[in-house]
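Teaching soon. Invent one.


***
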Amino acid sequence: MKTERRDVIIAGGGPAGLMLGLLLARAGVEVEVWEKHADYLRDFRGDTVHASTIRLLDELGLGDGFRRLPQSRLGNFVVPRNKGAGPDDILADFDRLRPPYDHIAMVPQWDFLDFLTAEARREPSFHLRMETELVEVLREGDRCTGARWRRVDGAQGETRSRLLVGCDGRSSRVREQAGLHPIEYDVPFDTWWFRLPRHPAERNLPAALVPIFRPGHLLLTLVRTDYLQVAYFTDKGADARLRAGGVEKFRDLVADLRPDFADRVSAITSMDDVHLLDVRLNRLRRWYRDGLLCIGDAAHAMSPAGGVGINLAIQDAVATATLLAGPLTDGTLSTRHLKAVQRRRAWPTKVLQTGQRLLQEVIFTRTLDGSRPGPPQLARLAARHIPALRKLPALAIASGPRPEHAPAFARRPNGVG
């Protein structure tokens, strides 16, 4: 079996894996990313790029190129009032933030990942294997020494490394084989995602996030550049029962919740057009072993609330590169350095997950059980009568706790990849 050597193997070519690969390559580290798919074209992956990530891209010299990607600018978070009850309530006012970091960019994730890949490939020490999945973590005693891989064509090999980084998502094989076990938090809902067309007359409307709260029902619509991305929240484990009702019943449900969608629900041709997201919320007690580290969803699965998952994963990657590039280049990497990554990133993870659990309890759960649909009236009244308070949730979403900055070795003038 063929054996190769790299300084770092990264399992998973998502936002965290590609960002980490780019940053380490800019430090001169020989890094290889393994992505098991042939491309990044998968529907309903997280597409929200928050202000903290946009600023990071500017620091890396990639901001101009990023802004040329197809994208829409997500506006304020607005909750409609009942008809005739007055103007809608703005709960998160991004207009109060300082430009250019005053918004969320909605970018198809495949375009974002293609962009990161192209920039990383400019670095001679960056390597990427597509259609290659990790099969087995290699060990010598308690230390991880690399991994065995298999390509889609059946070819196999081993790569030895000083560090294996699991960026392979919430069903991480790296995490499983390392014996790292997450703390699981109860999530009482799953999400159905589907698309609806936008009519030509609607193409000039700004991107927006539009929630509909009814007792037992929550429908969330992301207004994208040329289509509508819709999430219907369901009770955990209800997927089979709801699918058994058939597509006509589901179309009627969507049209009842959003009568303005009645003329386009026929775009849902079958229940195959509706994609289930099994929502999870968890985090590892320990993110590392000797020679191995997990970050991003492999270390902490996030719920869709706030769309923070991609950005938290990217912040993990930046902290990892900042703390480990030096020890990797001078040959002193130890578990002490890996522990430092967890110590830096565990706190913002806990803060965001606590916020998601609070939102889950006061909004999602009480909407779905019918006890009190929508945000609490006190929150609506506060946002209505104290406009300055609208900045706080916008700032929390846009930047998050402990945003990371690009390390000096990775910075370039903006516009220079």
Q: What stands out?
A: The chain has a mean pLDDT of 90. The two ends are 37 Å apart (CA to CA). The chain is about 30% helix and 25% strand. The longest helix spans residues 335-368.
